[in-house]
Amino acid sequence: MEPHAHTRYERMFLFLWGYAALLFVAGLVLGPPSKVLSGLVKIVLTEDALITDYVLVAGLGAALVNAAIVTAISLLILHAARVPANGITLVVIGLMSGFSLFGKNFVNIWPILLGTWLYAKSRREPFGKYAATGLMGTALAPVVSYFVLDNGWGTLPTGILVGAVIGFILPALSAYTYKVQNGMNLYNIGFACGLIAVLIVPLISSLGATPTTQYRWATGQAVPFAVLLGGLSLALLAGGLFGCKPKLSCAWRGYLRLLRTSGRAPSDYLRMFGPAPTLINAGINGLIGLGMIALIGGDLNGPTVGGILTIIGFSAFGKHARNILPVMCGVLLGSLIMHWSLSDSAVQLACLFCTTLAPISGYFGWPYGVLAGFIHASVVLYTGSPVAGMNLYNNGFSGGLVAIVLYAIIIAVIRHRRPEIQDEDYFDLVADDEPTAPKTAYTLTEKQE
């Protein structure tokens, strides 16, 4: 193993700080500071079960500033916990910044992070081993907000306690759910959070609570969001083609090699292919997400922009054009047959977040990706109700259900096919210092058959 391999991409944090600064400046430009401040107060004092678009609640400027603050908090936690820069780092930042537009804020994430920190302490292990899990586990931040804000039903201490319990149990649960999904659902934390929410909502309902799903969906923000996302995607693409050390031809060849992978988790593209192909992949995927929303005539707002930012983040960890497009096409196909429309807000989100099942397309072939998207679009419409919108990663929950069922059926019907590019070199490189991708993960997935 190379000396100091874990510090190879530390400069990436500088660019991520630049991204946080961009969100902050954009928020101040698009919303006067006085309105931004009052908007942030509204965001903190709003119950934020799905779908709660902070753009509608508090304005575009406040939503972007909240995203900037949450992104900065995430970067500080990753830095303080000495988490090495890798693909998961980009995933975390994509998720945290994206979902800070509709559900996460700079207050309701802390109890869950506290619980994860306590879990690490109880095991006498460094918090860095679980920091990414804790940050992604803030998918259940609406639970904290509900306990604190719901007409006095809960209290601040109760909200902190419940959030801490969630953060404490999540690392162990997510490690188990990772195994049962066989790397076919990239939003593993979303599946684990969905299971927790399935338990929490009936329990508190039996105690007299009445959590309900929300519908706050902004419109009329297409131009500023299109400019911001289009500019970001093009900048990433240009950075990969011209801003990294490899020549343009080398960067492009690396991207073409990346396209030949299955995307089966864990697939850390930053460690496998380097920054140039990963940036190219992120830029192209961002443009694909924008194109999908334009194709279906959807809205650009907090939730859909969050979905596109999530795709960009996971471009460093499993998603690429060849494995996400078939799944998206499956959703489009479903719209021609099912009794729901692409104009429905939940379906617009499904068009983006269905890419959690990209490994099925990459591993078994595009027809299975289309099938996965076709099924997922209908399943996700009904998985949010039992958890009352408390799990922000609802597509991750439904994606896990689809992945478990499809994987077992496909394996029983067709002969197992290995990806053209294997990940052995990646695991040999990072197994000793990467808590996010332990070598046992390879044993449990790629060699299972």
Task: Describe this structure as you would to a colleague.
There is one protein chain. Helix 12 crosses helix 14 (275-296), helix 14 packs antiparallel against helix 15 and helix 16 (321-337) crosses helix 19. This protein has 449 residues and is mainly α. The longest helix has 25 residues, at 156-180. The model is unreliable at 1-6 and 418-449 (pLDDT under 50). It has 22 helices and no strands. It has helices at residues 12-30, 33-44, 54-58, 60-80, 87-99, 110-122, 131-136, 141-149, 156-180, 188-206, 222-242, 248-258, 269-273, 275-296, 302-313, 321-337, 345-353, 358-364, 366-383, 394-413, 424-430, 439-445.
Largest sheet: none
Order of helical and strand elements: HHHHHHHHHHHHHHHHHHHHHH
Radius of gyration: 20 Å
**Which bin fits the share of residues in helices?**
55-70%
- CA distance, first residue to last residue: 28 Å
Structural class: mainly alpha
Q: Which strand-content bin applies to the residues?
A: under 5%
Poorly predicted parts: 1-6, 418-449
User: Shape from CA axes?
Assistant: globular
State mean pLDDT (0 to 100 scale).
Answer: 89
Number of H/I helices:
22
Number of strand elements:
0
